[in-house]
Amino acid sequence: MSDQTTLPMQAIGYIHSPFDEKFGIPRQPGLASIRAQVELVPPFASPDAVRGLEHCSHIWLVFIFSATADKGWSPTVRPPRLGGNQRLGVFATRSPFRPNPIGLSCVRLVGIRCEGERVWLDVEGADLLDGTPILDIKPYLPYSDSLPEAEFALASRIERLALPVVFSAEAETACSRISDELNQPLARQISEILLCDPRPAYKKGDSERIYGISLYGFNIRFRISSEQIDVLSLAPHPET
């Protein structure tokens, strides 16, 4: 087969998530209880297309790394999990910089909504940027997709910081108000994201540096030291 073969693909839908920038998104699905919605688009927005999916507790989302699709790829990458100092072959990682920028995420299916000619899948645990194109949806099959004997020595367990997350008085007040407005457990979600340590590996030694992640249109400023994670403030982005 010629390596010039064109394989036709199109998005069947797009995800709507509170992540509007890459920084801060957990590097794997299921690490934060963030709710998102997959909106199917015609001709795939059909109740028939999702018939039976309501019996699934979890589904696979096959998607395009749209934010990095034009950045090219390299045979080796520096995974953040290894501190950004060790190179691995791209196929031994889940880097978005791939020959074909395709990703795979397992998410919890919370519900299915069919509204006229629109179909929505409510999901939890998605690690996807808002607007990410979805190529396919597949049911998660526990008997074949869960392999307790599987091993990968370089990523054998979930890595989270073992630190307390402390909200300043200002941040706590804002968080409580925004949680009520959004009807979301915002403090828990922020804590889950920050315990995944979104900082670049080469800057983790700077305990005074203040970072910001964007969630639900709010800028969340934080600092991480060896003793604790400080959530300093939550404020709307100026453009919102």
From TrEMBL:
The keyword Cell wall biogenesis/degradation does not apply. Keywords: Methyltransferase, S-adenosyl-L-methionine, Transferase. One of its GO terms (molecular function) is methyltransferase activity. The keyword Methyltransferase applies. It holds the Pfam family TrmO_C. Signal peptide: none annotated. InterPro entries: TrmO-like_N (IPR023370), TrmO_C (IPR041369), UPF0066_cons_site (IPR023368), YaeB-like (IPR040372), YaeB-like_sf (IPR036413), YaeB_N_sf (IPR036414). GO terms for biological process: methylation. Residues 9-149 form the TsaA-like domain. Belongs to the tRNA methyltransferase O family. NCBIfam families: tRNA_TsaA. This is tRNA-Thr(GGU) m(6)t(6)A37 methyltransferase TsaA.
